[in-house]
Every structure is written in C-alpha cells, then in structure tokens.
Input
Amino acid sequence: MRPKTLVRMTAIAALSTATFQSAPAMADAGSLLDPQTRALQMQQYDEVRTKTILELQPFRTTQTARGADGTSYELVALNPAINSWFLLTVSSEGFWSSTRQFHLELADPKHSTISLVAGAEPELVIKGEATEFRCTPWAGSSPELDDAQYRGLPFAPICDERVFLRNRVKGNSTNREAVADFLRDNVVFGESLVNMIKGSFYEDAFMNSGPVIEGADAGETVKALGKAQLDNAPVFRTSFNFDLDGAEGDRVEAGSWYAVSDIPGVYASAMQPGMISRDLLNRSGETNALDGVERGADVYLIAFDLEQFEVGLELGTDHPRVDWSPRPSGAGRNYRIPGPDGIDDSAPLVRSGMLSPAKTDRVVGTFASGFKRSHGAWRLTEKAYTNYGHHYGFISEGVIFSKLQPDLATILVLDDGTIDMRTWTEADNTLLPRIHYARQNGVAVVEPDPATGDGVPGSQIRSWMGGNWSGNADAKLRTLRGGACMKTAGGRQFLIYAYFSTATPSAMARTFQAYGCEYAMLLDMNSQEHTYAAVYTQENGDVVPHHLVRGMASIDSKRRDGTPIPRFVGFPDNRDFIYLLRK
Output
C-alpha cells in the first residue's frame, strides 16, 4: 500500500505555544478519554516509580472484547491522535492458557483507522476513506499472526497488507561500535577505555580539507537560499558523493548552494570555517577561538525544502536505550527505579531500526539523529543533579520512550506536520498529545537572539561540561561532528544537516551563523557511522543511496552483485535516525 499524504505546514515564524494549545487536534486528543481515565493515566505518567512503557503513554485508549471460547482481546491505541502504533494482547484461558502481545503499525495512518469489534468472534476492523476490511489474524489452524512472527521480517504484513506486525530483529552495527558497546556493558572502566580509543584513533581521523583551485569557475548556484557570510569564497574540491546541478565536477564555490541532481527540493553546500567573515569570527565573548586545524576542515551541508517533505524519527533496535546513563550520580540518580522514567526496556513495543516499507517509495533522505543513552545525560553542573541528569528525551509515532526535558535542544514534528527546532520548556508539555516525533540532544548550538531573532551562539557553547559537548578526558572538543539547523529563506523553511569533518562546538556555531540559521543543535560525533547522511533516488524499483561524503558509502551493506543496500532503509540498524519523505 502506498499512502498519499498531504501535510499542512505552518510557518515557524508564526508558531507559539498559544497557537498549539488552541489547535483543533489538541482538543480532539483530549476528548478521546473520559476525565477520570485521563487523570489516572497522567498520574501514572508523572509518578516516580518502576512502571511499564504503557504507563508512560498518558493519552492511550483501550478497547477490549471477549470471544465465545473465553479468549480475551485488548487493543491499545498508544496515541490516538497520531493513529500509528497499537498493542494487541490475546489471552486464552484453560489448561493451555497464554498471553501474547503484538506491536501493530497501520500502513496508512493518515487515511485509515483500526478498531477492535466485540462479538462471539471478535474482529479487527480497518476502515479507509471508502473501504472497510475485517480480519481475525489470531484465528484458524494457521493464524496469520503466527506466520508473520515466524517469517521474522522487521515489518510483516497482515490483514491484506493494511497492517504491519513489528517483529524484534537484530540491528546492524559496525565492528568499532560493537567493540565500544561491549566495553561499556561488560568491562569495569569500559567507558574510560572507549574514551582512550577515541582520543587515540578518532581525533581528526576523518578530517577533509579540499584544495583551493585558483581562477576556477564553480558553475551556476542556487540564489534563493542565499550565500554564507564569508570573507573568502574560493572554488575548492569537495567529497560529495552525488552530482550537483551547475557545478563543475567536484568543484564548488564556498558558501554557495547547488541543487542536488535528480532530487528536487534538496540542495548542498560546502565551506571551511576559516573562510567565515571576520565580523562573525572576531565577536568576543560568544565562542572560543577556532584553532588552525578546524579553520581548514571541510564542512558539508545538505538542505531540505520543508514545503516538499515530511520529517520523521525511527528508533534503533538498541539505541538510544531507556535505562540510566552512567553519567549522573548523587541527587541525579534514583537507584530505586530502573531508569529515569521508571523503565529500562521498551518491551513489548518493538523498535525496528529501519524505515517502514510503506514509506520507502517516498524516502528522500536520512541522517543519524543523536547520542546513545550512555552519553545522553549530564555528568556535572546543575543539570546533572536535577531532573535525574536531564536524560535526552525522544518520541516516535507519538509514543513517549523518554520524557522531554526542559532546557534541552529539541527537534519536533507535530500531528499536522509542523516542524520546529527549539529549546524545550515546561510550558511546552502542553504539546505532548500532538507530538508525532521528537529528539533531544544537549543544548542549543545556535539560538535566536531575543532582541533581533537572528541566530547567535548558544549560552553554553564555551563550556565543556555546561554544554555536555563530549570530547576526550582533556576536554579537547575538536572531533568529527554532525548537527542540524532550521533556516528561513524566501519565506520557506529549510532543515539543514551539516557534517563537520573536525570541529569544536564553537566552529559549529559560527558555521550555522554564517549560513543564517535561526536555531541549531548537535546530533552525534566521532565517526562516520554516527554522522551518516544520505539522499536517495528511485531507480528500477530500488532505493539508491547517494552519501553526503564518499566515506559513508562503506557503512551500507552490499548485495552479491555489489549494489548497495542502504542503511536505515534496506536493513535494520541499532541506531536511531531522522528521515525525510516526499509529500
């Protein structure tokens, strides 16, 4: 099935908490529960105790039915306003009593609904705009659910392909990542060993510095996105792994934008931080001074016109986890509960680590979205000892896996398709019923100046611990990094992903400023599997990846004939990722 989706976009400049609170979808989400049930579920959500992941879903609704044979059925809509994920429980009585749970996903949640209908033989009813389909996937001598589980596909179709059963699978990881996870989980002082390895082998390991080509012509650029604020904009060689319209081979003019060939609405640019205008670089007190290495290190950016795309977040099979990060201690940790939100496991919900098959024919881009739980909390400063260390929160398909924490940089998507990037506040919790996707990572790299609205370096950009920027034990912050920002140009919103071949947070902030970003945040760092980004074309029924830089191609799998199987799209991964779909 191929959903045909048209999502209404709202200009970020017009967004406000008051606007969100008055939206019809907000009222609809609240009206799905009676006041007593809503109050009880909010109490479960707020309580500090060991709980289940279902108790973290304050907006869930439940339908029950009992068959003539005594079998009971329960269908939980985890967030009815989003209408995507459901938990089906089938419990039989008697000598062979059993309880089985199935994580279901609607293939087309924009245009269909699913409900449990009671009767002598209860049924699932999937209603479309002009259709109704009934199924009993638990019934018969060879139940459809059993077959779907046995096949072991990450997404196994049932009910005439209107619903997917999400099956637990093992997510792919590189050898480096597998070794790091093993050390962290099984070796005393494993985190220290990992940091030593990073300091020895990762520092500047992926640095690129494209040579300047004197007197060269870079070709025609895209003027609508503007140019970065640079003092020096030479033509230089890049390592993009896709073609650019108008560019002369791999040569681009620093700070200019080029359309990515054959992918409408996607643009690319490159520069080196040392080229940024001195007016920006020399503003005292805002950032640390850039060293000579990062001044000459390539930065590659890719911009997505959000009038043409939807944005989503899919969690990895393993990361980010929901238990405690080892970083908080003392008042920042509660040893009576298994994790900061009362859970240490996502079961019975299933995390697939790959894009749903219902979305692959519209996928345009993906990029790795953030830190693992082990690094996603504070070790020192006030944030380490309040809100249990401010573990980075995340929400997928309207399901809360980890609560969103105040004062953290957050990218979010609402139920109407509105996309925003902001510093989360307590007041923003009124948005929770409407959040489709959200991911937090540290604090702002760039944030709006309250007086002008222009992007300025975040308040913690110069503080190693205050910004939780990570780095090595000597607080050396320069390493490969990935980040994202929001930019408005010509009245249109753009989501920009940036790959820094080696940079400190200060270099990131100045780069995003130079490109006119209103808000920017760090995503992940240290290696190309953690900063992976690709865009896609559809060729002969296959999704073909084109990587932001050439080195990322090695992370994809290969078929026997040597053609690539794209990460996040063609096979499950252990890491979470952000994806973009064409509307």
Summary: The first strand starts at residue 61 and ends at 66.
